[in-house]
Amino acid sequence: MDENTVLRKPLISVRVFHPQKLAQHGNAHSSLHMRVLYIGDVAKLRWIVMNQAVNNASKESATTPKTDLVNRQYRLKTRPAERINADTFERVEERVPELKDGQALVRTIFLSLDPTNRIWVTDVEQYMPPVQIGEVMRGIGIGQVVASKNPKYTAGQLVSGAVGWQDYNVIDGTESWPFSPLPSNLPVPAEDLAGAAGFTGLTAYFGVFDIARASEGKTMVVSAAAGAVGSIAGQLGKIAGCRVVGIAGTDEKCAWLTNELGFDAAVNYKAADWKEQLTKATPDGIDINFENVGGEIMEFVFSRLNLRASVALCGLISSYNESSDERTKVSLSKVLMKRIRIEGFIITDFADKFPEASVKLITWLAQGKIKSRSTIVDGLENAPEAVNQLFDGSNVGKLLVRVGELSK
Ligand SMILES: NC(=O)c1ccc[n+]([C@@H]2O[C@H](COP(=O)([O-])OP(=O)(O)OC[C@H]3O[C@@H](n4cnc5c(N)ncnc54)[C@H](OP(=O)(O)O)[C@@H]3O)[C@@H](O)[C@H]2O)c1
Asked: What is residue 113's DSSP assignment?
């Protein structure tokens, strides 16, 4: 699907009421007409789950003419037994090749750090192949086209895709994980495109509406609630009409959830009496568990689930640095007696519904109905250390690495 095709036949076209323009003109005619192609070609997205992305500028031969630009890459060297550490990756520097006809050069702007990075470097059965030793570390993010000899891409354009842990990608549009051009007039900042309006927000969206089936009057408990997915999931729960209670690891995070994001209550699971606090915050029991953590947190939430409760099993971060995923013990007898529905999901399951969900998320963000926050670490060289923020809880909201500056 090239850009011309998209322009003739957009996946979806909507009117988004831009808050600044509304403030200026004060009426609904001042909306921003936005063409959302967002993630782009759905058929290719399905392919993601079956193919490993190796967007690797080093595929070029030694004789290919090179530019003066240097591409730093972090390649998997050893599989960590516990946390990712200095030995996990080898840093390699290569000069970026001159573009051939049909190619475009993309500079990484924001690299998304995700708990699943830890899963990808582990050789276990998972939802896509693990990164192999010697390969550039897989990572999704936002890039900017630096130069293009391909009609699908225009210099200056933002693209979303599997940028990898590297500065540059030479692409030709046939990658197994395609780079999708993003519309230039989206009313959200680039960091949100890598977070609340990207895969993070989409994960929260489908978890809350399709898996948990959140609705008016239900009590929803979200774990890792001040993180990227959890903070959006809780706000979507409020939009659905739920009473939303968050669980997070500091008092500051809990205050952010209740004071700024509109959660009804938040509990710091590091407080000695957190179980009593959660009990008080959920006087009528729990109807929906949006679960990101597993372990003791999930077990206690589970003990308070009501008849016909649902569990949207999004993640189990408390076990990702461990060799066993047997950490969470829940009673199947309770599942039976209370007719509880537990459903695991992976965001790529919903690829064909990304465009409509992206429109909603971008609209809510632009209107201020949901708020986003990012923790931004500067410099690709800091990615191997920064990814551990996800496991020690030092990130608030979406954890990103700013690899390059956006050029105007
Ligand atoms: N199913 C999917 O398709 C999908 C997609 C994206 C993400 N996910 C999952 O969603 C979850 C959240 O991901 P995210 O990207 O939004 O990360 P995140 O929540 O921004 O960061 C992880 C947070 O988890 C908390 N945490 C880490 N270790 C913990 C532990 N042992 N016990 C309790 N809390 C712990 C920390 O916050 P505290 O300060 O509160 O401890 C940390 O800030 C993860 O499980 C991830 O795998 C799933």
From this structure: P
335-393 pLDDT, tens digit per residue, is 999 999 999 999 999 999 999 999 999 999 999 999 999 999 999 999 999 999 999 99
pLDDT value for 58: 46
**Dihedral pair phi/psi, residue 321, rounded to 5°:** -90, 10
Strand partners, 220: 244, 288
Q: Could you tell me the domains of the chain?
A: 37-195+372-402 (3.90.180.10), 200-348 (3.40.50.720)
Could you tell me the CA-to-CA distances from 148 to 9, 101, 161 in Å, in that order?
23, 9, 17
**Cβ neighbours of residue 124 under 8 Å, at least 6 residues apart?**
130
Cα of 7 to ligand 1 centre, how many Å? 37
What pLDDT, on a 0 to 100 scale, did the predictor assign at position 326? 67
Enter the tokens of residue 354. Answer: 């990304």
> From ligand 1's centre to the CA of 78, what distance in Å?
24
Query: Which residues is 71 bridged to in the sheet?
Result: 94
Between 316 and 23, whose confidence is greater? 316
Residue 32 exposed, middle or buried by CB count within 10 Å (0-12, 13-18, 19+): middle
Residues with CB under 6 A from ligand 1: 114-116, 203, 224, 226-230, 248-250, 253, 292-293, 297, 314-318, 345-347, 390-391, 393, 395, 399
* pLDDT digit string, tens, across residues 36-48: 433 334 434 433 3
Summary mean pLDDT of the chain: 87
Distant-in-sequence, close-in-space partners of 189: CB < 8 Å, separation ≥ 6:
none
pTM score, whole prediction: 0.88
